[in-house]
Amino acid sequence: MTNSFYNIIVVIMIPPLISLSGSPWTVLPPGIHPGSLEDVETAFATNSWRRQLFDGLVDAAGQLRSAGCGQVYLDGSYVTGKPRPNDYDACWEPAGVDGQKLNPVFLNFNNGRAQQKATFKGEFFPSSMICADVGRAFVDFFQFDRFTGKEKGIVSISLATDPILS
Q1: Confidence (pTM)
Q2: Does residue 23 sit within a domain?
Q3: What are phi and psi of 3, to 5 degrees?
Q4: Residues 106-121: what's their mean pLDDT?
Q5: Which domain holds residue 96?
Q6: In a domain, 57, yes or no
Q7: Which of 45, 84, 85, 131 could disulfide-pair with 77, CB 3.0 to 4.6 Å?
Q8: 60 and 147 in contact (C-beta within 8 Å)?
Q9: In the predicted model, is pLDDT for residue 55 greater than 80?
Q10: Nearest to 16 by CA among 51, 42, 54, 36
Q11: Buried-exposed string 67-93: b where 16+ CB fall within 10 A, e elsewhere
Q12: In sequence order, which residues have a C-beta less than 8 Å from that of residue 48 and are 6 or more positions away?
């Protein structure tokens, strides 16, 4: 009798940050990098302030998931080498979202998104919403460094399967 065994282990890790000539901090390499909230925590919740930002992100992600959102894209100085980012930027996939269950703060863009920042310590946009400044959907706009205009990466988080939200 012959026994055959195999094990398929899939590890998703956020890649190491890279230098981008002209940018003040290291950034994610170009592309959309899948990761879990736990991966984000490991990579970016590296001091007490960044931990507070992460806690706001988890709260927001849970509320978005409860409204039917399946995907969040994380950007901003939070996913860079900046030691003390002011906040994080995120956009969420609107497909499948029940507007009746969506916290209205996710659609409040007044006063520089002050209510979003007060509630979640970050800013949120529907991923397909066009950023008026550049004429691109936020999910695309987020993939360019604001200092250099060069491509950089963002993190995608699948809310439906994320263990922290389960």
Answers
A1: 0.91
A2: no
A3: -105, 135
A4: 97
A5: 31-160
A6: yes
A7: 85
A8: no
A9: yes
A10: 42
A11: bbbbbbbbbbbbbbeeeebebbbbbbb
A12: none
Based on the structure, what is the number of domains in the chain? 1
- Please check whether residue 67 lies inside any domain of the structure: yes
Within 10 A of 105 (CB to CB), how many other CB atoms are there? 16
What tokens does 13 get? Answer: 């890790």
Q: Pull the structure tokens for residue 117.
A: 């920042």
CA distance 75 to 83: 15
Residue 14 covered by a domain: no
Tokens 């899939």 found at: 10
The length of the chain in residues reads 166
Q: Token pair of 16, please?
A: 């190491």
Token digits of residue 134: 């550049």
The HSE-up count of residue 156 (CA atoms within 13 Å, CB side) is 17
> Residue 1's pLDDT band (boundaries 50, 70, 90)?
low
